[in-house]
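Marked as duplicate of an earlier ticket. Keeping the data here for the record.
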Amino acid sequence: MTRNYTAEALLLEDDLAFSKHSAVIAAFGKNFAKMKRAPQKFHRYLIQGMDSRNVGDYDINSQLSTTDAAEQIARAEEFLTFA
């Protein structure tokens, strides 16, 4: 979620605000990744992070590991450093 809030903050700098996480991710892709204002990997990180969150929150048979969590934390830190 940290990445999503970071993306929201970057979008707010352009006076863009959204109420859904999916809209934030799409707008970040359109306004930052596609325009090369941010590395495309950060858009991919947002997408994959949301997918992992949905699995962790809603899949009772989730196989997410501590390694998966550590990777998400590292990506969030990288995104925060970029922002």
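See parent ticket for discussion. The chain has one domain: 2-82.
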